[in-house]
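yo

u said u wanted the structure for the complex thing, so here. seqs first:
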Amino acid sequence: MHEQQHGRSPQPMAMDRRAVVFAGLAVAFDVAVPIRVLAAREVRTIPILAYHRFDPSAPGPTTVTIRTFESQLHQLAEYGYHITRLRDVVAASRDGGGETTRQAAITVDDGHRSVFTVLFPLIRQHRTPVTLFIYPSAISNADYAMTWDQLREMQASGLVNVQSHTYWHPNFKIERRRRSSENYRAFVDDQLQRSKATLEARLRIRVDMLAWPFGIVDADLEAAARKAGYAAALAYRGGPMAPGADLLALPRIPVGDTDRGMRFAALIGATGPVAAWR
Ligand SMILES: [Zn+2]
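structre next:
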Protein backbone atom coordinates (compact mmCIF):
# COMPACT_ATOMS: atom_id res chain seq x y z
CA MET A 1 0.00 0.00 0.00
CA HIS A 2 2.69 2.46 0.96
CA GLU A 3 5.35 1.57 -1.49
CA GLN A 4 4.93 1.99 -5.18
CA GLN A 5 2.96 -0.72 -6.88
CA HIS A 6 4.47 -3.03 -9.39
CA GLY A 7 2.26 -4.51 -12.07
CA ARG A 8 3.46 -7.78 -13.47
CA SER A 9 1.96 -10.22 -15.89
CA PRO A 10 1.40 -13.84 -14.87
CA GLN A 11 4.33 -16.19 -15.34
CA PRO A 12 3.66 -19.07 -17.72
CA MET A 13 4.43 -22.48 -16.25
CA ALA A 14 6.35 -23.39 -19.40
CA MET A 15 9.27 -21.26 -18.22
CA ASP A 16 9.77 -23.61 -15.26
CA ARG A 17 9.95 -26.65 -17.48
CA ARG A 18 12.41 -24.98 -19.80
CA ALA A 19 14.64 -24.17 -16.82
CA VAL A 20 14.55 -27.77 -15.70
CA VAL A 21 15.45 -28.94 -19.22
CA PHE A 22 18.29 -26.41 -19.38
CA ALA A 23 19.63 -27.48 -16.00
CA GLY A 24 19.43 -31.09 -17.12
CA LEU A 25 21.38 -30.30 -20.32
CA ALA A 26 24.04 -28.45 -18.35
CA VAL A 27 24.59 -31.52 -16.19
CA ALA A 28 24.44 -33.88 -19.18
CA PHE A 29 27.16 -31.97 -21.06
CA ASP A 30 29.26 -31.44 -17.93
CA VAL A 31 29.91 -27.73 -18.31
CA ALA A 32 31.23 -27.71 -14.76
CA VAL A 33 34.10 -25.24 -15.08
CA PRO A 34 32.30 -22.02 -16.11
CA ILE A 35 29.36 -22.95 -13.90
CA ARG A 36 31.54 -23.29 -10.82
CA VAL A 37 32.81 -19.75 -11.42
CA LEU A 38 29.24 -18.46 -11.61
CA ALA A 39 28.29 -20.26 -8.42
CA ALA A 40 31.29 -18.86 -6.54
CA ARG A 41 30.30 -15.35 -7.57
CA GLU A 42 26.69 -15.96 -6.54
CA VAL A 43 27.14 -16.94 -2.91
CA ARG A 44 28.28 -13.42 -2.09
CA THR A 45 24.93 -11.75 -2.81
CA ILE A 46 22.06 -12.08 -0.35
CA PRO A 47 18.46 -11.39 -1.35
CA ILE A 48 16.57 -9.47 1.35
CA LEU A 49 12.93 -9.89 0.38
CA ALA A 50 10.37 -7.15 1.17
CA TYR A 51 6.70 -8.05 1.69
CA HIS A 52 3.68 -6.07 2.90
CA ARG A 53 0.39 -7.98 3.12
CA PHE A 54 -0.83 -11.54 2.93
CA ASP A 55 -4.13 -13.15 2.05
CA PRO A 56 -5.25 -16.79 2.08
CA SER A 57 -6.13 -16.65 -1.64
CA ALA A 58 -6.75 -13.12 -3.02
CA PRO A 59 -3.64 -11.42 -4.45
CA GLY A 60 -3.24 -7.62 -4.62
CA PRO A 61 -0.63 -5.08 -5.71
CA THR A 62 1.32 -5.61 -2.46
CA THR A 63 -0.57 -8.69 -1.23
CA VAL A 64 0.88 -12.17 -1.55
CA THR A 65 -1.28 -15.30 -1.22
CA ILE A 66 -0.41 -18.27 0.97
CA ARG A 67 0.15 -20.38 -2.13
CA THR A 68 2.67 -17.91 -3.58
CA PHE A 69 4.49 -17.37 -0.29
CA GLU A 70 4.87 -21.11 0.20
CA SER A 71 6.03 -21.56 -3.40
CA GLN A 72 8.69 -18.88 -2.78
CA LEU A 73 9.85 -20.62 0.42
CA HIS A 74 9.95 -23.91 -1.46
CA GLN A 75 11.93 -22.38 -4.32
CA LEU A 76 14.43 -20.76 -1.96
CA ALA A 77 15.00 -24.15 -0.30
CA GLU A 78 15.24 -25.91 -3.64
CA TYR A 79 17.86 -23.39 -4.78
CA GLY A 80 19.87 -24.01 -1.63
CA TYR A 81 19.05 -20.75 0.17
CA HIS A 82 19.01 -20.78 3.95
CA ILE A 83 16.63 -18.16 5.36
CA THR A 84 18.65 -16.30 7.93
CA ARG A 85 17.80 -13.67 10.52
CA LEU A 86 18.21 -10.19 9.04
CA ARG A 87 20.56 -9.23 11.87
CA ASP A 88 22.95 -12.05 10.89
CA VAL A 89 22.74 -11.15 7.20
CA VAL A 90 23.62 -7.53 7.99
CA ALA A 91 26.55 -8.67 10.15
CA ALA A 92 27.76 -10.90 7.32
CA SER A 93 27.67 -7.96 4.91
CA ARG A 94 29.46 -5.68 7.37
CA ASP A 95 32.16 -8.29 7.93
CA GLY A 96 32.73 -8.76 4.20
CA GLY A 97 30.68 -11.83 3.35
CA GLY A 98 32.48 -15.09 2.78
CA GLU A 99 29.40 -17.25 3.33
CA THR A 100 29.68 -20.73 2.04
CA THR A 101 25.93 -21.26 1.74
CA ARG A 102 23.34 -19.20 -0.07
CA GLN A 103 21.47 -16.99 2.38
CA ALA A 104 18.28 -14.96 2.14
CA ALA A 105 16.31 -12.83 4.59
CA ILE A 106 12.60 -12.01 4.82
CA THR A 107 11.31 -8.58 5.86
CA VAL A 108 7.73 -7.33 6.10
CA ASP A 109 6.87 -3.62 6.23
CA ASP A 110 3.99 -1.65 7.76
CA GLY A 111 2.44 -4.02 10.35
CA HIS A 112 -0.70 -4.97 8.45
CA ARG A 113 -2.96 -7.27 10.50
CA SER A 114 -2.63 -10.05 7.89
CA VAL A 115 0.96 -10.39 9.06
CA PHE A 116 -0.48 -11.80 12.28
CA THR A 117 -3.50 -13.65 10.89
CA VAL A 118 -2.00 -15.13 7.70
CA LEU A 119 1.81 -14.96 7.78
CA PHE A 120 2.45 -15.83 11.43
CA PRO A 121 0.91 -19.35 11.24
CA LEU A 122 2.96 -20.02 8.09
CA ILE A 123 6.29 -18.98 9.55
CA ARG A 124 5.58 -21.03 12.68
CA GLN A 125 4.85 -24.02 10.50
CA HIS A 126 7.97 -23.55 8.37
CA ARG A 127 10.16 -22.18 11.23
CA THR A 128 11.06 -19.16 9.10
CA PRO A 129 12.74 -16.14 10.73
CA VAL A 130 11.18 -12.81 9.72
CA THR A 131 11.90 -9.16 10.52
CA LEU A 132 8.93 -6.77 10.75
CA PHE A 133 9.38 -3.05 10.13
CA ILE A 134 6.73 -1.22 12.14
CA TYR A 135 5.66 2.42 12.44
CA PRO A 136 4.30 2.60 15.98
CA SER A 137 1.68 5.33 15.39
CA ALA A 138 -0.51 2.74 13.60
CA ILE A 139 -0.23 -0.09 16.14
CA SER A 140 -3.40 -0.67 18.23
CA ASN A 141 -4.70 2.43 16.45
CA ALA A 142 -5.33 2.07 12.71
CA ASP A 143 -7.93 -0.55 11.79
CA TYR A 144 -5.65 -2.20 9.21
CA ALA A 145 -2.76 -2.60 11.64
CA MET A 146 -1.74 -5.15 14.25
CA THR A 147 -2.01 -4.58 17.98
CA TRP A 148 0.82 -4.37 20.51
CA ASP A 149 -0.33 -7.72 21.96
CA GLN A 150 -0.08 -9.35 18.54
CA LEU A 151 3.43 -7.96 18.07
CA ARG A 152 4.40 -9.24 21.53
CA GLU A 153 3.05 -12.68 20.71
CA MET A 154 4.97 -12.80 17.45
CA GLN A 155 8.15 -11.54 19.07
CA ALA A 156 7.81 -14.18 21.83
CA SER A 157 7.82 -16.96 19.21
CA GLY A 158 11.52 -16.35 18.68
CA LEU A 159 10.94 -16.28 14.92
CA VAL A 160 9.93 -12.64 14.62
CA ASN A 161 12.06 -9.59 15.23
CA VAL A 162 10.40 -6.17 15.28
CA GLN A 163 12.34 -3.14 14.05
CA SER A 164 11.62 0.48 13.08
CA HIS A 165 9.89 1.96 10.03
CA THR A 166 9.91 5.53 11.52
CA TYR A 167 7.12 6.77 13.79
CA TRP A 168 4.36 7.53 11.31
CA HIS A 169 5.74 6.59 7.90
CA PRO A 170 6.29 10.08 6.43
CA ASN A 171 7.45 10.80 2.91
CA PHE A 172 10.72 12.58 3.69
CA LYS A 173 10.91 14.16 0.22
CA ILE A 174 7.57 15.90 0.75
CA GLU A 175 8.37 16.87 4.33
CA ARG A 176 11.68 18.41 3.28
CA ARG A 177 9.91 20.58 0.69
CA ARG A 178 7.28 21.91 3.05
CA ARG A 179 9.38 22.54 6.15
CA SER A 180 12.24 24.92 6.93
CA SER A 181 15.61 23.12 6.98
CA GLU A 182 15.82 23.40 10.76
CA ASN A 183 12.27 22.17 11.23
CA TYR A 184 12.85 19.31 8.78
CA ARG A 185 15.95 18.13 10.64
CA ALA A 186 14.07 18.14 13.95
CA PHE A 187 11.19 16.27 12.28
CA VAL A 188 13.51 13.57 10.92
CA ASP A 189 15.23 13.15 14.29
CA ASP A 190 11.87 12.83 16.02
CA GLN A 191 10.58 10.22 13.53
CA LEU A 192 13.70 8.11 13.91
CA GLN A 193 14.13 8.44 17.68
CA ARG A 194 10.47 8.20 18.75
CA SER A 195 9.92 5.03 16.75
CA LYS A 196 12.95 3.34 18.26
CA ALA A 197 12.12 4.47 21.80
CA THR A 198 8.46 3.42 21.52
CA LEU A 199 9.20 -0.04 20.12
CA GLU A 200 11.91 -0.63 22.72
CA ALA A 201 9.63 0.40 25.60
CA ARG A 202 6.49 -1.40 24.37
CA LEU A 203 8.16 -4.65 23.32
CA ARG A 204 11.26 -4.65 25.57
CA ILE A 205 13.57 -5.28 22.63
CA ARG A 206 16.65 -3.72 21.08
CA VAL A 207 15.85 -1.64 18.01
CA ASP A 208 18.82 -0.70 15.84
CA MET A 209 17.54 -1.44 12.34
CA LEU A 210 15.32 0.78 10.22
CA ALA A 211 13.45 0.47 6.93
CA TRP A 212 13.20 3.80 5.09
CA PRO A 213 9.54 4.67 4.27
CA PHE A 214 9.02 4.50 0.49
CA GLY A 215 12.71 3.60 0.28
CA ILE A 216 13.58 7.32 0.39
CA VAL A 217 17.14 7.80 1.67
CA ASP A 218 19.97 10.28 1.15
CA ALA A 219 23.20 11.25 2.93
CA ASP A 220 21.42 13.56 5.40
CA LEU A 221 18.93 10.85 6.34
CA GLU A 222 21.73 8.33 6.76
CA ALA A 223 23.53 10.74 9.11
CA ALA A 224 20.34 11.21 11.10
CA ALA A 225 19.85 7.44 11.36
CA ARG A 226 23.40 6.98 12.60
CA LYS A 227 22.86 9.71 15.18
CA ALA A 228 19.60 8.10 16.35
CA GLY A 229 21.43 4.83 17.04
CA TYR A 230 20.61 2.72 14.01
CA ALA A 231 23.32 0.29 12.94
CA ALA A 232 21.60 -0.64 9.67
CA ALA A 233 18.84 0.77 7.47
CA LEU A 234 17.14 -0.69 4.44
CA ALA A 235 16.05 0.79 1.15
CA TYR A 236 13.12 -0.71 -0.75
CA ARG A 237 14.73 -1.68 -4.05
CA GLY A 238 18.16 -2.49 -5.42
CA GLY A 239 18.29 -6.26 -5.94
CA PRO A 240 20.31 -8.81 -3.99
CA MET A 241 22.70 -7.36 -1.40
CA ALA A 242 26.41 -7.56 -2.21
CA PRO A 243 29.08 -7.55 0.51
CA GLY A 244 30.28 -4.10 1.45
CA ALA A 245 26.88 -2.53 0.68
CA ASP A 246 26.06 0.79 2.38
CA LEU A 247 24.79 -0.37 5.79
CA LEU A 248 22.38 2.57 6.01
CA ALA A 249 20.82 1.98 2.58
CA LEU A 250 20.89 -1.80 2.15
CA PRO A 251 19.09 -2.95 -0.99
CA ARG A 252 15.96 -5.08 -0.83
CA ILE A 253 13.76 -6.91 -3.32
CA PRO A 254 10.02 -6.12 -3.31
CA VAL A 255 8.09 -9.34 -3.83
CA GLY A 256 4.63 -9.65 -5.37
CA ASP A 257 2.15 -12.41 -6.01
CA THR A 258 3.26 -13.05 -9.60
CA ASP A 259 6.85 -13.65 -8.54
CA ARG A 260 7.00 -17.39 -9.01
CA GLY A 261 9.21 -19.74 -10.98
CA MET A 262 11.82 -18.15 -13.24
CA ARG A 263 10.54 -14.66 -12.45
CA PHE A 264 11.29 -15.20 -8.75
CA ALA A 265 14.65 -16.82 -9.59
CA ALA A 266 15.63 -13.74 -11.61
CA LEU A 267 14.56 -11.41 -8.80
CA ILE A 268 16.68 -13.12 -6.17
CA GLY A 269 19.66 -13.35 -8.52
CA ALA A 270 19.73 -17.14 -8.67
CA THR A 271 20.71 -18.89 -11.87
CA GLY A 272 19.11 -22.20 -10.95
CA PRO A 273 18.62 -24.94 -8.40
CA VAL A 274 21.87 -25.48 -6.56
CA ALA A 275 21.91 -29.20 -7.44
CA ALA A 276 22.32 -28.30 -11.13
CA TRP A 277 25.59 -26.49 -10.45
CA ARG A 278 27.47 -29.19 -8.60
ZN1 LIG B 1 6.17 1.13 4.41
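The mean pLDDT is 86. The CA atoms of residues 22 and 62 lie 32 Å apart.
cya
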